[in-house]
């Protein structure tokens, strides 16, 4: 008999209330995030993320590319530039598949940002 493991997709990490620093339509796509913020939130280059825009209610999926370390940049690129504008506040979610028996013991990493994209916690 084959035993199949059950996995659940749960929140791995979140950048909470990040401030969009730019929206660059003339780019191939993705979201540029300060490399330091990516490390704090355990988000890897080219990882898929869900972004929710607090200001306009838009929700969209894209991937992340690293921005200059210490720049506090969160830039919407390409088509995602239509989903927000400079100054909008966003939530950036990353996910992980966790075995069913580990779900209750898996805390997400949540980084709360101020209006300058500096961590509050």
Would you mind describing this structure in some detail?
It contains 1 helix and 8 strands. The protein is globular, with a radius of gyration of 15 Å. By secondary structure, it is mainly β.
Give the SSE map.
Blueprint: E1 7-19, E2 22-24, E3 30-34, H1 35-40, E4 48-53, E5 59-67, E6 74-77, E7 89-99, E8 109-112
Parallel strand pairs: 1-8, 2-6, 3-5
Antiparallel strand pairs: 1-7, 3-6, 4-5, 4-7
Summary, kept brief:
With 121 residues, the protein is mainly β. It has a single domain, classed as Barwin-like endoglucanases, CATH 2.40.40.
What is the straight-line distance between the termini? 48 Å
CATH architectural category: Beta Barrel
What is the CATH topology descriptor?
Barwin-like endoglucanases
Strand content: over 45%
Helical/strand content category = mainly beta
- DSSP strand tally: 8
Principal-axes shape call = globular
How many domain regions? 1
Helical residues, percent: under 10%
